[in-house]
Amino acid sequence: VQLQASGGGLVQPGGSLRLSCAASGSTDNINAMSWYQQAPGKRRELVATITSRGSTNYGDSVKGRFTISRDNAKNTVYLQMNSLKPEDTAVYYCYVTTSFGDGYWGQGTQVTVSS
């Protein structure tokens, strides 16, 4: 499975961004799709997960501001980020797991929240 993330950039505090991550290759067995964030000097942390049935789970810091969704026909996962804060600045990575228990990371996309 190959993952291509896009949509990052520079945004002012309070602004919005939408990240996309498209999967290709052996996508038939993809199960959960997730977004992680990694700020400089910090460990990679879970932002949000969505299962193949659409159940979602969010990290405490983004609840109520971020929304994860997926389009199974396009093998794509999205992260709508609203009310962005400077502390949301990080590289965002998509991650998928398969029904075989394998995990795959995307290349990361930089999100910078600054005035």
Strand content: over 45%
Low-confidence stretches: none
The helix content is: under 10%
What is the global morphology? Answer: globular
Terminal Cα separation, in Å?
37 Å
Order of helices and strands: EEEEEEEEEEE
State Rg: 13 Å
- How many extended strands? 11
Average pLDDT figure = 96
Helix/strand/pairing category: mainly beta
Largest sheet: 7 strands, mixed
Number of helices: 0
Quaternary assembly: single chain
Keywords:
115 residues, mainly beta, seven-stranded mixed sheet, 0% helix
Summarize the structure in words.
This protein is 0% helix and 55% strand. The strands form two sheets. Strands 2, 4, 5, 6, 9, 10 and 11 form a seven-stranded mixed β-sheet that branches. It has a four-stranded antiparallel β-sheet with strand order 1-3-8-7, with no helix packed on it. It is built from no helices and eleven strands. By secondary structure, the protein is an all-beta fold. The mean pLDDT is 96. It has strands at 2-6, 9-11, 17-24, 30-38, 45-50, 56-58, 66-71, 76-81, 90-98, 103-105, 109-113.
Q: Can I get a quick summary?
A:
The chain has 115 residues and is mainly β. The chain has strands at 2-6, 9-11, 17-24, 30-38, 45-50, 56-58, 66-71, 76-81, 90-98, 103-105, 109-113.
